[in-house]
Design goal:
Layout lengths: L2 H30 L3 H7 L3 H9 L2 H26 L2 H7 L4 H42 L2 H4 L6 E5 L2 E8 L5 E8 L7 E13 L2 E15 L4 E13 L19 H5 L6 H5 L1 H13 L3 H14 L9 H27 L3 H21 L15
Helix pairs in contact: 1-4, 1-6, 4-6, 4-11, 4-12, 6-11, 10-12, 10-13, 11-12, 11-13, 12-13
Length: 372
């Protein structure tokens, strides 16, 4: 690699990293706001919240990196043009391909990163994210941390805790269970605790009573107890019970799902489409690099700026991105669109490569020489 290529490549790398960080932080901030309720309602610590939301970064980076690369190429090559550096390099005999080589190398590197994200890091992190989110939402000890509130664990099951001391003991407990129509049950206890057992969470009530009313007869059954246990395992779901969504699955699980599972049979087309999308999406960084390089290097130098070329490149990248998303959605219902999914980046890449290597037309001189 020549010194000139290293010079351009370094600028592309720095610009890509900067734009990626800015876009990732922006998207992370907007997406993390959806999980603020976990802090408010579930008592999630700040460290756990940051870890939970950071698991979403691979899914952002697969989309952000190609766009950041295209923006970096447009910025760097436009800067080189405005500083007349490209004019000097062309005058030195460098071809279009040599000038575009750093952009293509950067596009290839980003494509390799996107392949690693798409095939491993995305499903691994998203699976961890969904498991952790499910465990947090099903952690009913967090419900009992909210003092002085009527907390609805599920429809017809409400818990009230007056206070909680430093040792974790619950004080002033009221549990109301109206899930059985016509037989509401109310339990009150002076104190209690949350117990984690192999069969699921339990609430231990100490020194209280259990009241049950039959609404048809109006009869009240009252039972005083020293110790009483309320089972909460029926409200919890383990990660094994939860159906894995397509973004949580690795490539072999997408193309070869267990069809004995009715959910896998029902969403078989979604799984297959996700698998092909994982293979196609990492090709787009090279496509976007070609589009941006072709826009900035084709044609003649214009001292008035490169606004039209930049706008055209942005529009074509937006069309390519829209085509990628649209074809992925269509392939769920129309399997033959999977072939078009693979052809789409090839068409954009071939057209951009042709424009990049095409010899630019010389401008005709506006002045003519006349003999004296």
């Amino acid at each position: 690699m020549t010194a000139i290529s290293r010079y351009i490549l370094r600028q592309l790398f720095e610009a890509t990293v900067f734009i990626t960080i800015v876009l990732a932080c922006t998207i992370w901030l907007t997406q993390s706001l959806r999980f603020v309720e976990l802090i408010i309602n579930r008592g999630l610590s700040l460290g756990a919240f940051l870890y939970l939301t950071s698991l979403l970064l691979p899914s952002f980076l697969v989309i952000i990196l190609p766009v950041a690369l295209a923006c970096a190429i447009l910025y760097v090559y436009n800067k080189l043009t405005m500083d007349s550096e490209l004019v000097v390099l062309r005058a030195a005999g460098l071809s279009q391909f040599r000038l575009a080589e750093p952009a293509l190398l950067m596009g290839t590197a980003v494509s390799v990163i996107c392949f690693s994200l798409s095939l491993y890091f995305l499903p691994a992190s998203f699976r961890q994210f969904k498991d952790l989110e499910s465990s947090i939402r099903n952690d009913y000890s967090a419900v009992f941390l909210r003092e002085g509130m009527f907390n609805t664990v599920s429809e017809g099951f409400t818990v009230y805790i007056r206070a909680r001391d430093s040792s974790g003991e619950l004080l002033g407990i009221l549990v109301h269970d109206s899930r059985v129509p016509g037989k509401p049950v109310t339990m009150m206890a002076e104190r209690g605790a949350i117990l984690a057992t192999e069969d699921g969470p339990r609430v231990l009530l100490v020194e209280g009573n259990r009241q049950e009313v039959e609404r048809q007869t109006g009869r009240l059954s009252l039972l005083y107890f020293d110790r009483y246990t309320v089972d909460l395992s029926q409200f919890t779901r383990t990660s094994e019970d939860r159906w894995r969504e397509p973004p949580e699955r690795f490539l072999n699980e997408l193309f070869f799902p267990d069809l004995s599972d009715p959910n896998n049979r029902h969403y078989q087309h979604n799984l297959r489409s996700e698998g092909h999308q994982r293979l196609v999406a990492p090709l787009y960084p090279i496509v976007y690099a070609l589009i941006a390089a072709a826009a900035m290097l084709s044609g003649q130098f214009d001292r008035r700026g490169q606004t039209r070329r930049i706008a055209a490149a942005v529009a074509i990248v937006a069309i390519a991105q829209t085509a990628q998303i649209g074809l992925s959605n269509l392939s769920v219902k129309l399997p033959f669109m999977i072939i078009v999914m693979y052809l789409s980046p090839l068409v954009f890449a071939a057209a951009s490569f042709y424009v990049l290597l095409r010899r630019p037309k010389r401008r005709s001189s506006a002045l003519s020489l006349t003999p004296a």
